[in-house]
Amino acid sequence: MTQHPRAEIDQLAEASIAALRAPSILNTQPWRWRLASSHTELWADRARRLDGIDPDGRLLLLSCGAALHHAVVALRAAGYAADVERLPDPERPDLLARIRQGTPGPADGELYRAIYRRRTDRRPFGDRRPGDAVLAELRSAAERHAVHLHVVRADQVTAFASAVAHANAVERSDDRYRADILAWTTRPRQERDGVSARSTVPTGPRTLTPRDLNLAAPATLDPGPGSDLGTVYLVLVVDAEAPAAWLAAGEALSDVWLTLTARGLAASPISEVVEVESVRTALQRLLGGVGHPAIALRVGHPAPDAAPVPVSTRRSGTDTVGLPGQP
Ligand SMILES: Cc1cc2nc3c(=O)[nH]c(=O)nc-3n(C[C@H](O)[C@H](O)[C@H](O)COP(=O)(O)O)c2cc1C
Fold it and tell me: Which stretches of sequence are listed as region Disordered (predicted)?
């Protein structure tokens, strides 16, 4: 059955709207969607790149890759295969993807539902370690995007924790880095972006201390009773230091994160280990020297009776999705 173009556009518009829920570095939401008559385009919004934290734009592209995967998940939930051309025009490198609805197929709503349940959970997790079966499932989710998933082994955790600590020490003494954190944790409410103190926790005693997002205002999310003893650390590893690989890593990050959410697990990214070049190289060596670390993630079971993490804000479709005929 041929679909009326209007219905196709509605489907693509809905996918672009679902993609607004994607995670992004400091909730910068560095993307724009442009709807055309038979496809939608995902564009990088370089004005939202973080000068201090992300001069190469790798985390911007990871964030956009997550948005791309969210849109594909939304189309699949509506019963379409989603047909994606990545980086289709070498003359316009900020055009990251062109997505068509694709052929009708079985509707798959599981990851779609996880889009609205997923949160960055920065609290200590519970005692119980995620099992091998779910970790294998997360590995498959990453490999669907040709991205390798490395589970940091028990004998590597101390070295990994010191890499995180070193990255944080380097960044704390860098004014440009501090300026990015201050700017994106104090955004005016009406901008509907940035990280709110409602979703950050005070740094407490842990195996690994992630970055302090509370330079401007104290954290207000209760860390709860979690011991963090069961937490596992994952690293997504790509084959190249290049835009196409960072985009794929973002798609893999989204696939892994939505899959673990669907299985009742929670996560928060640790990107400081790839932001500082010397730490990135040290992490690469720790992982055996094969491939390039793109991002790390802490994953665990939420502590028993943990309250839901408040939902974080997003810009509206009006601000981020251009309609056909609009510039
Ligand atoms: C590429 C990328 C890097 C991120 N790095 C960190 C990080 O280092 N620390 C952290 O606490 N959250 C990190 N986040 C999570 C974002 O802060 C979070 O997605 C955003 O604030 C929106 O909140 P939500 O995920 O709860 O919707 C990262 C997210 C992405 C996509």
Answer: 189-220, 301-327
